Amino acid sequence: MSAIIELEIGPGEEPGTWNVRVLRSAGADAASASFSLDVDALISRLPFMDSTVLASAVPARRVLTEGETEVQRVGTELFSAVFAGEVEEAYRTSRAVAKERGESLQVRLRLVAPTLAALPWEALFDPEAGVYVCRKEPLIRQIPTTDVMEPLSLEPPLRVLAMVAAPGDLPAIDAGAERVRLEAALRPHIARGRILVEWLDEVTWSNVHEKLLSAPWHVLHFVGHGSYDASSDEGVLAFVGSGGRAEYVDASALADLLDQAEPTPRLVVINSCMSGAASTDELYSGTAAALVNSGINAVAAMQFTISDAAAVAFSQGFYSALAYGRRIDEAVVSGRIAILGLGRDTLEWVTPVLCLRGDDTRLFILPPSPADAEDAEDAAGAEHAAGAAAIPGGPDAPPEPRPKPDPRRVGLIAAVAAGAALLLGIGGTVAVMAALGGGGGADGGSGAADVGAQTLPARIDVAGDTVWTPTGLDCAGGQRLLLTASGEVEVDDLGGIALTPEGAQQQYSTINPQPYASYASLIGRVGDGGMPFVVGSRLAMECPGDGDLQLGVNDPDPAQNVGQFSVQVSDVTVDPTITLDALTPITVDVPADAGDWTSTGITCVPGATYSIWADGVITWGEDQELTAVNPDGTELFAEQDNDATANLPGLEAAQHGSLVGAIGGLPPYVGLGTDTYVDCYAGGGRIGELVLGLNDLDRADNTGGFTVTLSRITGPSG
After folding, report:
1. Euclidean distance between CA atoms 591 and 700, whole angstroms
2. H runs (alpha helix) in 110-221
3. Do 471 and 619 share a structural domain?
4. Which of 175, 323, 495, 517 could be bridged to 194 by S-S, CB 3.0 to 4.6 A?
5. Where is this region: Disordered (predicted)?
């Protein structure tokens, strides 16, 4: 059992004040304190945190100091407010006791006000120790209960019911790819008999009900779309309803459905947007907290949008820890550390949230699987034989064979070296010019081979070992097409890793046919000289002109790749229900003196992510008071104090005059700067046009402007 410090945090006597009380600890149990905290200001910064955390999934062309600073600033503000005086003393003492015992320190938070529950406590940063608390210690959002439930004793395997809900009227989810990714992450444990994963193909209410009745399930793993229903003030998940359209299931109804299983699953893992987020009006309104409050022992969910790579890494670290008999709180820390391994810039380890009912964090008592037991016996026998061989006069032990090099490891090392050359831009100028000129085929030619004409709808197989594949489809200017893609390509330069049409979201390069897009993602163009655009798993496009539609893999040297993407192409010119995506990259000029927002022509759909490159200068003032700033808001000369009163609401602390974005020109506003990424979910889940502007309420005397290039990195997702 870990050492524990459990805190209850609730409203104080005066507005803006809060009380914290130590319920138990290895230090002083009776400690308490009061503090002031502008919760509303912190909540207003959550959309920026959401986009910042998701953007960190893509390696930066520079260190993401702005994003890291924002997360650390919020985490430090929360930590310094709560852990002060007697409470800090209790925390430091508890940490010291846990360290002496060789244990971790569980930090449990009982948040008794809805606005507190909406804050990102997983960002807590201890400035004295210089560490994020949740990366060192298990951080638990405790849901109080009088029920006592003992850990469930079971024989291996741990039974996981997994499902990918993909309603036809919501942004597409590649169910096959989600299944492949999760099973690949868990393959060693599945092979050893520690975990069994069974998939539900059609996630309707009746199908889930029947599946829950059919067998015992220990864990429910849901991948899909999540949202928040303001009318019921409750989190919802999107099942598939009649006609394949979304049927929203609120958390309380889902809890009742899960009760149909015997035993009720002890653990629910939800990989969907905002499944761990909460309302500021109702305490147990978010999907995760509501499920736990309704009787589920533990829920691991996501408070921000999460990238595919981070979701897979979390599942691998999380389930591996459970399979080895670790507690649920330890498993979540393991998942965070797995995400951290994706790259030093990632901030997505802050996204998972653990809500727990009751006191016991050991949900399962899981003995070794038969295969593990056999290995233990074999190891004991080998140890015995080795001991016998060491007896003087005994038989000589055979020499240990020299290990053979792992060809995948060798290939990966070579890929890393090659990747370094790509990121450093070696030979980049010539390659970029070639790419912008339309790119070449696998043989270095300038265009795609001729192919027979096809009619719509059509299915096109895009070979992974060819840059451009002709489709035989003529794209007429103004015609609207819907492209949906599935399948996998094993990329040689990544050691044979299988990628979906979204590509490797952790890599990109200036020598790719489309430098702004994820490496090895599905891309397209119209005509041999057309500018490549991002397709990904789904693209609703309007043909930019007349020409033949070509599809390809965003890899400058794909000859050794294996596999293919399968693309369904349909004509949706007369379908008013289809929301068009902008073909990217596009360039937009943002005038310094514009009194309104500047249109990008991009319809922001939740889950889509866009790369932002900005350049230019704006100036204001006269003579000696003249000030000039770049898109980051960095003052180039005549430095003056930041005038927060002239900044946009919610961006008072941001640099005056910096580049900002919004959906439909409505708050929340998101700071962009020179080189960043914007997540369309930062608009709170709204669908609307992405517009650009300045962090300046008085632009009349401004001169100059910014030039902004936008390119879609990922398509709509959960």
Report:
1. 11
2. 114-117, 133-136, 175-191, 205-214
3. no
4. 323
5. 367-408
